[in-house]
Amino acid sequence: MLSVYSEKHALRNSKTELSGGQLVPPYECPVRAEYILERLKAEKIGEIIVPKEFGLDPITRIHDKDFLIFLEQCWSDWVATGYKGEAIPTVWPSRTMSSMHIPNHIEGRMGYYALAGETSISNGTWEAARASANVALTAQETIKNGAKDAFALCRPPGHHAASDMYGGYCFINNAAVAAQAFIDQGASRVAILDVDFHHGNGTQDIFYNRSDVMFLSLHGDPKEAFPHFLGYDDEKGAGEGEGFNFNYPMEPNTNYKTWGSALDQACKKITNYSPDALVISLGVDTFEHDPISFFKLQCDDFKRYGAKIGQLKLPTLFIMEGGYAVEEIGINAVNVLQGYEGY
Q1: Fewer beta carbons within 10 angstroms: which end of the chain, N or C?
Q2: Angstrom distance (rounded) from CA 331 to CA 83
Q3: Torsions phi, psi for 192 (to 5 deg)
């Protein structure tokens, strides 16, 4: 399996994250990608290439242009105010503050475009997010050109990013951009299967009213886990998208038997949908020792579910999302790919 990787991911190297009322070193850190790259090489999974540059056009098929301008300019605007720390939002347009004007001041603009407050923005964030999207699009292009599968080692991740919101460590929704690229290049239907511990709220929001992209997510119950406000099992899609959105929220301490049963249900829906391509939002934070999650999957379980995905016999694009037990992240991510390929 070909993999795509960019060293530019390291430009995303913030030093602070708001967690439990403290500013701590971010769980989403450069070493995550480096451990995965090291494991890919050790296991000789296949060729590793650098991404091409695709420009902003395929990204604007998913994301609001003003939002992208905000991401590009956020750090310089923050620094220009004289603020000394990394950029973290402090105010939001809450339920009773709904005029929805976009403020001029960077503090207000951050709150307008942020869906959560844990994710700081620092120098290099925009460049890394752009590179991550190019990684996804390069891997997608190889499948368009005839490859049966590919792995996009994306960092930063993307599945929490909505069309005009960032958060949850995500800025550009790589899975959504890649799925849209398949559609724009002639696919009639694409399925996105999100196996990250956290619900892919951004991806759901982007495709909620569409039937040409089916979204299925296995995740921690949002009553107990981030992002809290989406990911319930009664969210089925709307308008043309009704019946094309499926959530499988699960309780703390969920083991592979329960999780795998939900995956079986999702795979049946994918088979019935008969998509032209399958995009996997591959988060391995379902691992039993992940520091910010509460599922109990073990290392060998990742091979097991990779094999189930392989049994779908679809052109499959794996896009890296979460996973924060960094010493095992390479093992677990590559285990999925090896299970998919049958070894």
Answers
A1: C
A2: 40
A3: -115, 120
Residue 100, exposed/middle/buried by CB under 10 A (0-12, 13-18, 19+)?
exposed
Domains of the chain: 3-14+26-54+124-341 (3.40.800.20)
222 close to 228: Cβ distance less than 8 angstroms: yes
- 294: closest CA among 221, 201, 199? 221
Instruction: State the amino acid at position 172 in one-letter form.
Output: I
pTM beyond 0.70, yes or no: yes
Do 226 and 168 meet the contact criterion of CB atoms below 8 Å apart? Answer: yes
Contact 159, 175 (CB under 8 A): yes
Closest C-alpha to 210, from 167, 179, 166:
179
Q: pLDDT tens-digit profile of 29-66?
A: 999 999 999 999 999 999 999 999 999 999 999 999 99
Three-state DSSP class for residue 66:
helix
**Considering only CA atoms, which of 105, 113, 126 is closest in space to residue 14?**
126
Other Cβ atoms less than 10 A from the Cβ of 65: the count is 11
Q: Give pLDDT < 70 ranges for the chain.
A: none
Q: Say how far apart CA 172 and CA 181 lie, in whole Å.
A: 14
* Helix-, strand-, coil-residue percentages of the chain, each rounded to 5: 40, 15, 45
pLDDT digits (tens, 9 = 90+) for 111-136: 999 999 999 999 999 999 999 999 99
Residue 18 backbone dihedrals phi, psi, to 5 degrees: -85, 110
